[in-house]
């Protein structure tokens, strides 16, 4: 490879208290929390909208509740605070189904929450504006400015050119850990998930899909909720395609296609996924470009499969795709504490925890015990070796199975509120580093922000 030397540059600089890089699932909530905490806050987002993977990758938001059904325990909403406020607002705007009970597979998740991705993006942006966050959209965070172990700024690129976004506390919510990596944090790249593009498909009827799976005896999950203005409609469905016919199973496997779909609208399926396992980590730009092509090829083939398999879907079409590949993780950033699986499954609560959570994506194979919750310690978000950088979202937790819990949307949102609240408190109290924040202050502020701590937690 050839190299060039870039000359030193004098670039314009803007000053903030808290700078959040990445306006995705977690970053939106980090920025709102920081701004509500009184910090002058900037959010740097490379796309022209916010929401990240929650708005373009998943099927539903897992999960605001404990797993109450299989354990016959009290139903508790464990994630509250700004994420739940957002959901209520989204619901009022017609942008989500609200909390609906999953009607089969109780041992996996009892709470189905489907979103309309376009309303999601809009409401998230609206809430950021109301909180007073400066959303720097279409702006890519490309480098950091450092003094010893402190970050003093993030270098950005936009159509306007290069700029420095200076701050006192920084939150890496880029999913990929771009800021942490640039700042010299240690990281690994496990490359343990496929890359995915999720598409919205029009010209399909979810009732017919549901009937088809039921008639074939392969339906294994569904939920009812509001759809196109009517209550108690099918809004989520999944079935074992491979059991319909082995040939179909083979085709589905080859495409890495999943048949689970959600919807809020008649004649529309959301989040039909095709997966592709890359040979190298998705932080490799050239390999990623190849994968983008491969996924779009697979989407076309998946559409053909939907057309030929589902009754009444002969004229189905791709109505939307994600703007870029999505991934369950790329870099895994080393933080002060790395939460292990056994502590998650044994429902451990910690003296510095910032919220409680109770969902595991591999349930029932791997199950959080007794329908209870575990706590996420503050330490899991502090990037090792850096005084003023939080890492949140899918880039923390090295153990694959532990990550299958912490990385889920609702957990990422809660990490956002926790880190943003903490960042604002650090600024307000003039603290030298994010490790100097007394937990009692953070706990009090999170409680005020409606974060719910499981009753089993002995903090008063
Ligand atoms: C296909 C798929 C399906 C999933 N399904 C579910 C599901 O059904 N339920 C569930 O709970 N979880 C699901 N997950 C997991 C969950 O959605 C993710 O783990 C979570 O959304 C990650 O949130 P995040 O904030 O870490 O990253 P993201 O939401 O990806 O946010 C990162 C943001 O940073 C921006 N960004 C990145 N780099 C830069 C940069 N250098 N400069 C500026 N901006 C930058 C991106 O544009 C993006 O907006 C799924 C994940 C995938 C990939």
C-alpha end-to-end distance: 59 Å
The global form is globular
In quaternary terms, these chains amount to: single chain
Give a quick account of the main beta sheet: strands, pairing sense, barrel closure: 5 strands, parallel
Structural class: alpha+beta
The chain-level mean pLDDT equals 96
Low-confidence stretches: none
Report the radius of gyration as a whole number of Å.
Answer: 22 Å
**Ligand kinds:** flavin-adenine dinucleotide
Q: In order across it, which strands form the biggest sheet?
A: 6-3-2-10-23
> Percent of residues in helical segments?
25-40%
**How many distinct helices?**
11
Strand runs, count: 23
The portion of residues forming beta strands comes to 15-25%
Tell me briefly what this model is.
This protein has helices at 27-36, 81-92, 117-131, 178-182, 206-215, 246-255, 285-309, 341-345, 400-406, 409-428, 439-448, and strands spanning 13-15, 18-21, 41-44, 100-101, 111-112, 134-136, 140-147, 150-158, 161-166, 169-172, 187-188, 195-202, 219-227, 230-239, 257-258, 261-262, 268-276, 317-321, 326-327, 332-333, 353-357, 374-377, 389-391.
Structure write-up:
There is one protein chain. The protein has 460 residues and is an alpha+beta fold. It is built from eleven helices and 23 strands. Strand 13 (219-227) and strand 14 (230-239) form a beta hairpin. Helix 10 crosses helix 11. The longest helix has 25 residues, at 285-309. It binds flavin-adenine dinucleotide.
């Amino acid at each position: 490879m050839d190299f060039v030397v870039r000359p030193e540059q004098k670039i314009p600089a803007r000053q903030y208290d808290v700078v959040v890089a990445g306006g995705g699932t977690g970053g939106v909530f980090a920025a709102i929390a920081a701004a509500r905490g009184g910090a002058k806050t900037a959010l740097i987002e490379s796309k022209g909208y916010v929401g990240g993977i929650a708005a373009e990758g998943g099927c539903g938001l897992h999960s605001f509740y404990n797993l109450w059904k299989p354990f016959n325990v009290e139903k508790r909403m464990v994630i509250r605070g700004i994420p739940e406020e957002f959901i209520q607002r989204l619901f009022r705007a017609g942008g989500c189904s609200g909390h609906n009970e999953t009607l089969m597979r109780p041992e996996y998740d009892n709470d189905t929450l489907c979103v309309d991705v376009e309303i999601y993006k809009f409401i998230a942006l609206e809430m950021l504006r109301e909180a007073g966050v400066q959303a720097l959209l279409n702006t890519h965070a490309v480098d950091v400015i450092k003094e010893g172990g402190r970050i003093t700024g993030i270098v950005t690129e936009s159509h306007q050119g290069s700029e420095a976004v200076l701050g006192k506390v920084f939150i890496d919510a880029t999913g990929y850990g771009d800021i942490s990596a640039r700042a010299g944090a240690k990281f690994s790249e496990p490359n343990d998930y496929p890359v995915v593009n999720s598409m919205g498909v029009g010209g399909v009827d979810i009732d017919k899909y549901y009937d088809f799976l039921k008639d074939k005896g392969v339906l294994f999950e569904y939920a009812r909720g509001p759809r196109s203005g009517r209550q108690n409609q099918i809004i989520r469905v999944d079935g074992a395609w491979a059991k319909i016919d082995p040939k179909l199973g083979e085709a589905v496997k080859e495409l890495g296609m999943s048949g689970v779909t959600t919807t809020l609208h008649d004649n529309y399926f959301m989040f039909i996924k095709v997966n592709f396992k890359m040979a190298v980590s998705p932080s490799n730009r050239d390999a990623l470009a190849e994968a983008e092509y491969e996924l779009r090829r697979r989407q076309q083939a998946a559409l053909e499969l939907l057309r030929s398999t589902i009754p009444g879907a002969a004229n189905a079409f791709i109505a939307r795709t994600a703007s870029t590949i999505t991934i369950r993780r790329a870099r895994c950033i080393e933080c002060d504490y790395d939460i292990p699986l056994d502590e998650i499954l044994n429902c451990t609560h910690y003296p510095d925890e910032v919220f409680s959570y109770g969902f595991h994506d591999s349930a029932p194979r791997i199950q959080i015990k007794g329908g209870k919750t575990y706590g996420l310690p503050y330490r899991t978000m502090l990037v090792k070796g850096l005084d003023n950088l939080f890492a949140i979202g899918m880039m923390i937790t090295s153990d694959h199975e532990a990550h299958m819990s912490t990385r889920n949307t609702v957990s990422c949102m809660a990490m956002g509120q926790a880190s943003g609240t903490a960042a604002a408190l650090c600024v307000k109290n003039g603290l030298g580093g994010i490790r100097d924040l007394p937990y009692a202050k953070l706990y009090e502020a999170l409680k005020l922000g409606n974060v719910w701590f499981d009753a089993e937690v002995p903090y008063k």
